[in-house]
Amino acid sequence: MTHGPDDLGVAVIGTGKMGADHVRRIEETVSGARVTAVVDVDRGRAEAVASRIDGCAVHTDPAAAMASPDVDAVIVASPGPAHEGALMAAFAHDLPVLCEKPLTPDPAAALRVVEAECSLGRRRIQVGFMRRYDAEYARLKALPDTGRLGRPLLLHNRHRNVASPPGWTSAMLIEDSVSHEMDVTRWLLGHEITAVTVHTPTPSGDAPDGVRDPQFVVFETDGGAVVDVEIFVNCGFGYQVQAEVVCERGTARVGDGHALVTQTAGHWGGTIAQDYLERFADAYDREVQAWVDATRRGEVTGPSAWDGYAVAAVSAAGVRALTEGGRVPVELAERPALYGT
Amino acid sequence: MTHGPDDLGVAVIGTGKMGADHVRRIEETVSGARVTAVVDVDRGRAEAVASRIDGCAVHTDPAAAMASPDVDAVIVASPGPAHEGALMAAFAHDLPVLCEKPLTPDPAAALRVVEAECSLGRRRIQVGFMRRYDAEYARLKALPDTGRLGRPLLLHNRHRNVASPPGWTSAMLIEDSVSHEMDVTRWLLGHEITAVTVHTPTPSGDAPDGVRDPQFVVFETDGGAVVDVEIFVNCGFGYQVQAEVVCERGTARVGDGHALVTQTAGHWGGTIAQDYLERFADAYDREVQAWVDATRRGEVTGPSAWDGYAVAAVSAAGVRALTEGGRVPVELAERPALYGT
Amino acid sequence: MTHGPDDLGVAVIGTGKMGADHVRRIEETVSGARVTAVVDVDRGRAEAVASRIDGCAVHTDPAAAMASPDVDAVIVASPGPAHEGALMAAFAHDLPVLCEKPLTPDPAAALRVVEAECSLGRRRIQVGFMRRYDAEYARLKALPDTGRLGRPLLLHNRHRNVASPPGWTSAMLIEDSVSHEMDVTRWLLGHEITAVTVHTPTPSGDAPDGVRDPQFVVFETDGGAVVDVEIFVNCGFGYQVQAEVVCERGTARVGDGHALVTQTAGHWGGTIAQDYLERFADAYDREVQAWVDATRRGEVTGPSAWDGYAVAAVSAAGVRALTEGGRVPVELAERPALYGT
Amino acid sequence: MTHGPDDLGVAVIGTGKMGADHVRRIEETVSGARVTAVVDVDRGRAEAVASRIDGCAVHTDPAAAMASPDVDAVIVASPGPAHEGALMAAFAHDLPVLCEKPLTPDPAAALRVVEAECSLGRRRIQVGFMRRYDAEYARLKALPDTGRLGRPLLLHNRHRNVASPPGWTSAMLIEDSVSHEMDVTRWLLGHEITAVTVHTPTPSGDAPDGVRDPQFVVFETDGGAVVDVEIFVNCGFGYQVQAEVVCERGTARVGDGHALVTQTAGHWGGTIAQDYLERFADAYDREVQAWVDATRRGEVTGPSAWDGYAVAAVSAAGVRALTEGGRVPVELAERPALYGT
Q1: Taking CB atoms and an 8 Å cutoff, what residues of chain C touch B263?
Q2: Where a domain ends, among B128, B151, B175?
Q3: Mutual angle of helices B179-189 and A305-324, in 10-degree steps
């Protein structure tokens, strides 16, 4: 699939699990962008990803990719320690960046990045804290702002993974996993975190040797809130993220199989959509994307004219049943071979 | 925003609520297509929609739009009685069509469309039964296929709207609303509907004068299933669609605020995601689309480098709390003006 | 366990599954009554039940039991065809009766019972439609009465059993199972049922040969409501009873794992208890009953003084942690042997 | 209502909210016991309670009540500081006691009680930790014992009240409220609590002046578990108690509107009852108790013989609809005046 000259040309740095997924996303799902370069220290891995895309360059050095006139913007999805260098190169080329978390693994490097961006005098970096874009978190964020529930006092979080990758350490539960809840705390409450306490139960028998899993982390904030996080990366049963904000006059939570559930004034519950364009927004998007994709492949899939005819015939019988009463049989024409059997 | 020469050029016929939404969808959300023409008998309405799109032609006659070399495919979103003409024109120009439901309002016209498509010898039409693309229905469809629950015996449906549009009649509850459940029945069960019975309670006091609302519709199918549909288009409280398949050894339902819930062998419940790319797939899509859109506007929004630094600083404190025990205060540098206050 | 002279002396007619359970209930759970006689055509079965109760007589003829001065009231739990005779005998002895459903299996006999009670000039019979005493149904009944939801229009019911007993017939699904929903319809809506339609899908492969299971039954009522009942007595996965009343401006349902859930004005949800005596009413009842039962057996069970001490010690540490900050260790005395290890 | 000579004669010490509720419970709900004495320093309050009970003595001194031959057992529901004296008196009279929590407010007094009971050489005291008798907690307790979920690692608790009584202090949140979770921790996990940390957010604006509400309490246990408790006694919206045990391979929780919900191996959900005696056990209990109570008052309430007849008539119509097909009207006899209109 090719793209137009005004599409945003994106270089993706790093073609591991996350980077490869971003390449796929831009090619198949995102409107208005294309991947014009991929970068990986493992050139073979980069080439495998690039081979599926027309006109996609391959580099092993981020700066080389950024020098190309085809690159308008950068996604950094390389390992954390490589981020600082890639970000400084992007600053040098004055390119906007979507940088996967962590910005950098250590605070000193992160502060250097901040200072460099301040020297530029304008923002170039968006950090990949993608929970802010999750529909459930977005509803949670929208709610306490209304003031109906009062000021937030406590924030309970659960964060569970089926199993940790090889080499995962006790510290990585904090740095790589709970870092999401650090961002959620700062974004959702609008507070800075002022102190941290970590409680560690006897590790699960399913945790790798020497890894303290699960952990129970407590934050204090400058807005006077207390935040707790259960992090459990070898829970075995699923990937699960839950959050409950406890406010002065009610709570709101997401992540337990429902959409947003609030509790206030003697009632618990959620909202009901008011319109089919709201309820089925994603279905319409998928329907039209599927039709565009099939049409570009020269195919027709999805519900057929025969399906449309069959429903028209049942509708006519239904209206007769409504107006005349009783049970009305449905008569269909013979199904043409074109529509299968 | 402009598009590439290989994008699919789409003519949208009808620029009412549904047609205008499809135009917006193709321009903002769908990858690989652009709107090259809009058609409406109300030329002013078509022009208002086209004015926001570079190089989008305006027509009052579908056939004129279809004659353009910029038009590769057609979306039909005009009123039902106009569908047959538009579809025949598309056949004449050999263009693929996504046709909003109903295919045509009456079975005889629908059968003429089917026969014309059969004369072409290949499928050109996809009908807009978009529930097949809804994530919940897709899971419901996937499940009974596994055979774990046995053969489907009953299918219970609820279909509720806040209020019906002006001019809605008793027959339109069947033709326009329950037609979705007719397609769901045929698609989900793979059965044809063989008979219809309609039960009508005393209408709600909130129904327009003379409109029988709600109705309770029962289908029989050639696969021996019984299907019931509550249709209630002036329920006042929300737009709601629910379905429960009752099989020989269990049930599965969607639409009551949870994702798919099954009941089998003494247990009720649902599944838990196994991976963050699965759980947060939509969030990643929205994140990258938002970043692309902002970048093309020359802006940077979303989580900032400062947010990345703050999380790195809290992470470092957290790791100290883990390794040294006790409560560890967090020290942040002063926040630069670039990142607001 | 013996009882006081003013306890109600109850004769239980029929000592099958239901009758034996009523005997156990009166002896162990109900306050103010005792079983003074049991009756069964199978004398051995009656004797086995009576042998566990002080001073409980055994009869094979209901009338003989009713003649005893120790019998103040009667529970009829014999097979349906035997009910008419037992009820007429109770009338003859002017005894109040709790009669398991059905009152009688056929309407003519039921009408004779009604006429005989009318001749007495006062009510003697309560029929065992126990769903009226279920906490969930009671909340469902309470709600529509408030008028907030408007007039009831539809009532959806599900009624599922794991497997039917041997000899269960297609007609028994109506007479023995759906009869509960007949009572629920009449009690909940306050309407009489005016017509019945039965839809039968192809039977489940797990239904006994020749039994039409499941069935889908539709009632019309003199209040203009339409009521549907799914009855499925070989569903395999559980015993399940659900009901949803659809009113003009909202719905209320019970039986899907939650307590009462309502939908109205854009929201779905339930209520939250306001008091611990409300939330834990059943726990207090069970606690005190358990203590009384153990005490009468000369035993002490349940939480011990040691448990009380341990909690007092933790409380004291907790108050120190609150007032002084930080982590406060808990010191317990050595646990005496009296309280186990 | 009078009772038999073998009923347990109970003295209730303290006739405040809790004591009066126990008196009502024993008289109306519990089988095999009666209240033979009430004790309160406020004699008038005790007399008001006793006046509704035949043969119930009134005392202001617990020991005087215990000296009566009519007193077989004691419930202590007086204020906490009075417990030690009442318990020692009960030991002196060798009477079994159900003692409301706290056993005593301070650990030293509690230890004296323990030592006194050990001197007796046998248990006399049950402490009123009634959550052990709650159906939901009982299911939670039953579950982890099975070993399917593995060893418990974390226990999350929520404990919320609408509003605290006048005079409630920050320490009472620990001593009076969280003491329930101390018992739940010890009973559910079978661990002793070894350390306590208390985190206090800025108090809610709805908390009384100077009261730190909510609080977030963390326990460590000798079994290596970490337990957290949100205590919030002025949350405004309801009385709510929730608990989630996080084990090595799954979690189980109660208190969020469902019955027990487990998460394990990719699934969340609960169990479905297998039998109507299980599902409707409480309804049967209430039905028979209501019938006994009405009968003893000389009344007949509940479903009538007319209700039984009406259902028999609808059943007969239903069976005809099943066997003959179509819609069958229901014909009822005229309703006799005895059954109202």
Answers
A1: 237-238, 240
A2: B128
A3: 120
ipTM of the complex: 0.85
Q: Look up the CATH number of the domain holding residue B77.
A: 3.40.50.720
Q: Please tell me whether residues B154 and B254 are part of one structural domain.
A: yes
C280 touches chain A (CB under 8 A): no
State whether residue A59 sits within 8 Å of chain B by CB. no
- Cα separation, A58 vs A73, whole angstroms: 15
Taking only the tens place, the pLDDT of each residue in D234-289 is: 998 888 889 999 999 888 888 876 667 777 767 777 777 777 777 777 877 878 88
D121 and D136 in one domain?
A: no
CB D213 within 8 A of CB D233: yes
pLDDT tens digits for range A24-33: 989 888 888 8
Give the A:B interface size as CB pairs under 8 Å: 475
pTM listed for this prediction: 0.87
pLDDT digits (tens, 9 = 90+) for A189-205: 999 999 999 999 999 99
Residue A51: burial class (beta carbons within 10 Å; 0-12, 13-18, 19+): exposed
CATH number at residue A177: 3.30.360.10
Of C238, C271, C304, which one is at a domain's C-terminal end?
Answer: C271
Give the mean pLDDT of B282-306. Answer: 82
CB neighbours of residue A188 within 10 Å: 23
Q: Which amino acid is at A328?
A: V
Per-residue pLDDT at C181 exceeds 60:
yes
Mean pLDDT of B67-81: 94
pLDDT digits (tens, 9 = 90+) for D294-310: 888 888 888 888 888 88
**pLDDT confidence of residue D319:** 81
Within-domain flag for C58: yes
State the helix-helix crossing angle for D179-189 and C305-324, rounded to 10 degrees: 120
Using CA atoms, how far apart are residues B151 and B145, in angstroms rounded to an integer? 9
Question: CA–CA distance from B116 to each of A190, A331, B67, B105 (Å)?
Answer: 62, 20, 19, 17
Split into its structural domains, chain C has a count of 3
Report which of residues A285 and B86 the model is more confident about. B86
Residues C115 and C184 placed together within one structural domain of the fold: no
In a domain, C307, yes or no: yes
Is the pLDDT at B233 greater than 90, yes or no? yes
- D216 and D96 in a common domain: no
Q: How far is D80 from chain C (nearest CA, A)?
A: 11
Structural domain boundaries, residue C91: 8-128
Whether residue B159 sits in one domain with residue B190: yes
Same domain flag for C283 and C239: no
How far is residue C187's CA from residue C166's CA, in Å, rounded to a whole number? 31
Instruction: Compute the average pLDDT of residues A136-158.
Output: 84
Window 82-111 of B: residues touching C by CB (8 A cutoff) are none
Q: Evaluate whether residue B2 is within a structural domain.
A: no
Nearest chain C residue to B328 by CA distance is C326
The verdict on A104 and A185 lying in the same domain is no
Q: Is residue C149 a contact partner of residue C252, using CB atoms and an 8 Å limit?
A: yes
> Quick check: is D286 in a domain?
yes
How far is Cα C182 from Cα C110, in angstroms, rounded to an integer? 15
Chain D partners (3+ C-beta pairs within 8 A): A, B, C
User: Considering CB atoms only, which of B216, B220, B257 is closest to C228?
Assistant: B216
One-letter amino acid for residue D20 of the chain: A
Whether residues D268 and B269 touch (CB distance < 8 A) is answered with yes
Same domain, B141 and B226: yes
pLDDT at A278 over 80: no
HSE at residue B183, side-chain half, CA atoms within 13 A, is: 25
Give per-residue pLDDT as tens, D36-70: 999 999 999 999 999 999 899 999 999 999 999 99
Chain-chain contact of C270 with A267 (C-beta, under 8 angstroms): yes
Q: Is the dihedral of CA D196, D201, D206, D207 positive or negative?
A: positive
Count of positions (residues) in chain A? 341
